[in-house]
Write a structure and sequence with these properties.
Length: 109
């Protein structure tokens, strides 16, 4: 099997997953589409995944799904890319408390 970018070595059964479903609330939103050297960050992650000797790359999208999907599909080369829509939770997930707080709470209880 020929790998990406003309490489011959592909690890059989090895696939890459790019997790690109987050809303980037701490970043202020839109991190996946933010540009570095005129390239969306999500596209840089997909290119890095394709640089690995994998059979395929799957991109899991959620927040800003349509824009992220369009950016990924416009930048991808090859037919080993799949974009998967991950439904967003109905309410935001709560971050775990810092380890210090968790330890203190446990010690008091």
């Amino acid at each position: 099997m020929t790998g990406h970018a003309g490489r011959e070595a592909v690890l059989a059964g090895c696939h890459a997953i790019v997790l690109a479903a987050g809303g980037a609330s701490r970043f202020g939103g839109g991190k996946l589409l933010a540009r570095l050297d005129d390239t969306p960050l999500v596209c840089r992650a997909v290119r890095a995944a394709f640089a690995a000797p994998v059979e395929s790359v799957r991109v899991v999208i959620g927040a800003d799904a349509e824009q992220v999907r369009e950016a990924v599909l416009a930048a991808q080369t090859g037919d080993a890319l799949r974009v998967v829509l991950e439904p967003l939770p109905s309410r935001p997930r709560q971050a775990a408390p810092p380890a210090e707080e968790a330890t203190e709470e446990k010690a008091e209880g």
